[in-house]
Design a protein that fits this description.
The protein is an alpha/beta fold and 319 residues long. The strands form 3 sheets. An 8-stranded parallel β-barrel has the order 3-4-5-8-9-10-11-12, surrounded by 5 helices. Strands 1-2 form a two-stranded antiparallel ribbon. A two-stranded antiparallel ribbon has the order 6-7. It is 38% helix and 16% strand. Helix 1 packs parallel to helix 9, helix 4 crosses helix 5 and helix 7 runs antiparallel to helix 10. It is built from 10 helices and 12 strands. The protein is globular.
C-alpha cells in the first residue's frame, strides 16, 4: 500500500480504471463481464477504483461499481470525478461551475450507493470558470464529508498552483507512460514538493504497450484508438519495434509485456498508483500481477536504451 498524498488514505500501486466498463469507446462491453472484472480486481489485491460522473452517458460505470461492491464498501477506495458530462448528442460538456459540481457529486454518491468517496477529482479545468471557483466548491464538499480528499485531473502547473491555494490537493491525475513522459519535467517535481500523489492514466497507451496488437492489426470502425497518431503510419511501426524490445525483456523476466510496462511505471519516482483500464477479468488480473516485484537494474537500463532508440513520439494529449 502507498500513501495517497497527505490524505491518510492508502492505495495499491495498481488501480482499476473504470472508463472501459462504461462502454462508450470500448467495444463488446456488457454488464456481466464488467461486474466480473470489478470482482476480479478486488480478488487480485487491487483496492483502488477510479470512475467519474461522465463515465457513461448515464453513470453506467458508477452504477456497476455500486452493484459489484454491495456489502464490500469498506474494502475499496473509490475515486470519482465531477465537472464533465455528455449532452443529448453525446458531445462532451465541460462545466466546472460550483452549481454543476455540487449537483454531479450528489448524483455520483447516489449512483455509487455511498455517502462519501475517498477521492473526488475535478475532471478537467473549465475554461469558462476560474479554477479558484471550482476549487472553493470542492473545498466545501470536502468540509461536508462527502469526500475524504480532493484531486485534479488534466491540470497544468499554473492551474495546480491556483487550485491548491484555495483547496488542498491530495492527488493529481495526468497521463503518463513510457512514450509520454512530459510530466517528469514539471508535474511530478511539483507534486513531490507539495506531497501530492500522482495517479497516472494510460500506462499501456490505450493497449499499445500491452504487446498484444500485431503489426497488421485492423481496428474496428468503432474503436476510438484509430484517431491517435500513435496508432497510425510510421509512428505505429516505430512503436511496434519498441514493443518488440520490451517483449525480449518480458520473456527473460517470465512476465508479460504489459506487466513489465506497468511495473516500470509503478516504480518511477513520484508515481503513487497506476490506472489500468479493463473490461474483462483476465485484463485486470494480468496488470494486477505487476505488483510485488521489481525489474533488475540491467532490465531497466535496457528499457531506457530502447526508449532512446524509439525517439520522441508524435502524439497529442486527449481526455
Amino acid at each position: 500500500m502507498r500513501a495517497l498524498g497527505h490524505s491518510g488514505i492508502h492505495v495499491t500501486p495498481v488501480a482499476m480504471g473504470c472508463w472501459p466498463i462504461a462502454g462508450m469507446t470500448s467495444i463488446d462491453v456488457n454488464d456481466a463481464d464488467s461486474l466480473r472484472t470489478l470482482q476480479a480486481a478486488l480478488d487480485a489485491g487491487v483496492n483502488f477504483f477510479d470512475t467519474a460522473f461522465g463515465y457513461g452517458v448515464d453513470g453506467e460505470s458508477e452504477r456497476l461499481i455500486a452493484q459489484a461492491f454491495q456489502g464490500k464498501r469498506e474494502q475499496v477506495v473509490l475515486a470519482t470525478k465531477c465537472g464533465m458530462h455528455w449532452d443529448a448528442n453525446r458531445q462532451r460538456v465541460v462545466d466546472g461551475s460550483p452549481q454543476r459540481i455540487r449537483q454531479q457529486v450528489d448524483e455520483s454518491l447516489r449512483r455509487l450507493a455511498t455517502d462519501r468517496v475517498e477521492l473526488l477529482y475535478l475532471h478537467m479545468p473549465d475554461p469558462q470558470v476560474p479554477v479558484e471557483e471550482s476549487a472553493a466548491a470542492l473545498g466545501e464538499i470536502l468540509q461536508a464529508g462527502k469526500a475524504r480528499a480532493i484531486g485534479v485531473s488534466n491540470f497544468s502547473i499554473a492551474q495546480l498552483e491556483a487550485f491548491h491555494r484555495v483547496c488542498p490537493i491530495a492527488a493529481c491525475q495526468p497521463h503518463y507512460n513510457m512514450l509520454q513522459r512530459e510530466i517528469e519535467a514539471d508535474i511530478i517535481p511539483w507534486c513531490q514538493q507539495q506531497q501530492v500523489a500522482v495517479v497516472s492514466y494510460w500506462p499501456l497507451m490505450k493497449g499499445l504497450l500491452a504487446g498484444k496488437l500485431p503489426r497488421d492489426h485492423v481496428f474496428d470502425p468503432q474503436d476510438g484508438r484509430k484517431k491517435y497518431p500513435m496508432f497510425q503510419g510510421a509512428e505505429w511501426e516505430k512503436n511496434q519495434d519498441f514493443v518488440d524490445a520490451l517483449r525480449s525483456i518480458a520473456t527473460e523476466a517470465d512476465k508479460t509485456v504489459a506487466q513489465v510496462v506497468v511495473n516500470w511505471t509503478c516504480h518511477r519516482p513520484g508515481i503513487t498508483s497506476v490506472l489500468c483500464g479493463a473490461k474483462r477479468a483476465y485484463q485486470i488480473e494480468e496488470t494486477a500481477a505487476s505488483m510485488g516485484w521489481q525489474l533488475s537494474d540491467d532490465q531497466l537500463a535496457r528499457i531506457e536504451q530502447a526508449m532512446k532508440e524509439r525517439g520522441t513520439p508524435v502524439t497529442r494529449s486527449a481526455v
